[in-house]
Amino acid sequence: MELYFIRHGIAEVATDDIKDEERRLTKQGRQKTEKVAQRLKKLGLHFDFVATSPLVRARQTADIFMAAGLSSQIEECTHLAPDGNIYNWVVNWLEPKSFAPETKLALVGHEPCLSRWAEILVWGEAKEHLVLKKAGMIGIKVPETGSPLGRGQMFWLTPPKYLL
After folding, report:
1. In this structure, what DSSP letter does residue 140 have?
2. What are phi and psi of 141, to 5 degrees?
3. Over the stretch 46-89, which tens digit does the pLDDT of each residue have?
4. Are 145 and 101 a contacting pair, CB within 8 Å?
5. What is the C-alpha separation between 111 and 134, in angstroms, rounded?
6. pTM of the model
7. Which segments within 9-109 are labelled E, that is strand?
8. Please, which residues have CB within 8 angstroms of residue 88's CB and are 6 or more apart in sequence?
9. CA 78 → CA 9, 60, 83, 86, 164, distances in Å?
10. What's the DSSP call for residue 157?
11. Are 122 and 5 in contact, with CB atoms under 8 Å apart?
12. What is the C-alpha to C-alpha distance for residues 71 and 1, in angstroms, rounded to an integer?
């Protein structure tokens, strides 16, 4: 299975008037994310399934990817919220879904969670070495059987500037 960790686009700055979970993509964030999505489409990428954090900015990012034709299936996943835990995600969300081995799964969420999750999948622990830019993507191939933790192979790490 291929996992694509996608960070949400540029969002409004947190203020006392705007709750973190309600922050929306800015005009620039929406435009940049749309360009990234269209470039991924031109590269021939297609996701079998998109799982997104329930926070507004992540959901908007996922919706942009859907509108670009990068997938036809989307689901909110609370594990992808900023306080999400990869161990709970694997046991309570990923394993019960029983995706086919050739599945391409997009996970839209937040930093530093996505980078940490990617590190745990590749190295078995979070080393705080990877940084995922807004509207950037990390691709990791995980094994067909057994725990994916510490057994993944990273094949993609792209900041959005290389896709614009």
Report:
1. E
2. -95, 125
3. 999 999 999 999 999 999 999 999 999 999 999 999 999 999 99
4. no
5. 9
6. 0.96
7. 49-52, 74-76, 104-109
8. 79
9. 19, 15, 9, 11, 30
10. E
11. no
12. 16
